[in-house]
């Protein structure tokens, strides 16, 4: 009888320990009230893709709370909480309070960083999702629309699948990413990639308030300044891009089932990294594929000026410019549901309209983009779009008669390169990039 009772106790103890282990394993991705993450401890997403903890970048000794890929070497950080406020020693502690606010403390219990909250939760928990998104939510409520806070709303230098780049026009929430100052210093630099919603939304690289590079507007497949993006998408069926623009929000995001990130580096390179799981080859490794696009100072301000003035009363025509980067759309208007023929008529009916183009090139093209001012920042680009520039009827005949047999246009349209403004702008951008690359190179020695 005594042996039977002893066996029962051992069985009970075993079940208790097994259950405790299961509970501990199940909550490795979660922080609840009363729990914390200290320097040296980590959270790991349920699918083992991402890990949250403390780290020091490069040669720095400062400590940061960040998220990185769990199985990728070397350590690749995708988000940092306290990027502008490092902790000087390994004393950092992260916990969640009763109000659902994440709080990061240093050795003196001072708040180094905290999340925010617009409402309270009954049972607040913080969970590291398999997407790399750190979220604060109510217990078992997994509805993304009800998340109290999420790291995806506060990008660093990296855009992950599912993360938005754009703006909520109702709340004013902006999603943009900013490069690190250097490989050892993740604090915010002055260089930012963002979407400007004015007119027809466009993607810009800015240095503070100054526009350094215009990637252009979205045409259903790609930004008009980067048609190679379309080709990459065609070649890579696991990657898709999405763009939404309505009265509530404007945003761009990508989706992919594999590990992928887009980064603005300290040297102003726009890079896309993809990791392919090699377990199918019998090796538990990740293969890294890199696509890099250096932002070159090819930003040239180009204006079209006609040798004959437009005459709205006696009829104008349109000059077709093929394969170009569409001009600045900050003051343009879009009509989503009309054809290109209707777009032409609409432009002709407005004496202020200077050009038109298809707004969505998918499935043969649809929608209409209209310009009402100078056509700024146009350039020939492989895979570019067609732009129809308004010219006087008398001038159109001369232009057509001077076309080369090859189809290249010899037009009596003066392309004015604003030598002072654009020339200086290009030189300034080139100088900035050169100085940053030189500085980063010297720091790496």
UniProtKB/TrEMBL annotation:
The chain crosses the membrane at residues 411-434. Residues 1-26 form the signal peptide. SUPFAM superfamilies: alpha-D-mannose-specific plant lectins (SSF51110). Residues 312-392 form the Apple domain. The keyword DNA-binding does not apply. Keywords: Disulfide bond, Glycoprotein, Membrane, Signal, Transmembrane, Transmembrane helix. Residues 28-149 form the Bulb-type lectin domain. InterPro entries: Bulb-type_lectin_dom, Bulb-type_lectin_dom_sf, Pan_app, S_locus_glycoprot_dom, SLSG/EP1. This is Bulb-type lectin domain-containing protein. It comes from Acer yangbiense.
